[in-house]
Design brief:
The chain is an alpha+beta fold. Helices cover about 30% and strands about 30% of the residues. The chain is built from 2 helices and 6 strands. It is elongated and about 50 Å long.
């Protein structure tokens, strides 16, 4: 379950930022997790609760948005929305798609005290 490793990385980033910006408690972690990021949201939420124990993020709420996946079709030169990494272009049927959105995980914002 790589979600635990992701949670550990998130906590590491939070603690690093806390020391730089002098805050002592995180109330909410705003995450953006693309549909193609390969992250199981329920496992991440569970893992975060476990990993956050005894840290400044203990009890913090996760606010997760899931942006749609996007790709550039090399055949018809259009930006298209996809649901799977190996979808065909909904306009022309080509499989020559370059994924350019919805495949990343990022911390957008922290609500802190």
């Amino acid at each position: 379950m790589h979600e635990m490793a992701i949670c550990e990385s998130i906590i590491g980033i939070i603690e690093e930022q806390a020391s730089r910006n002098n805050y002592h408690k995180v109330k909410t972690v705003f995450l953006e997790i693309g549909k193609l990021a390969g992250v199981e949201i329920a496992a991440l939420e569970f893992g975060f609760e476990v990993v956050a124990k005894n840290t400044i993020a203990e009890g913090a709420r996760l606010d997760i948005t899931e942006p749609a996946a996007a790709a550039w079709c090399l055949n018809c030169s259009r930006q298209v929305e996809v649901t799977n990494r190996y979808d065909s272009c909904p306009n022309c049927g080509s499989y020559q798609l370059q994924i350019n959105g919805g495949d990343k995980l990022r911390i957008k914002e922290l609500e802190v005290e």
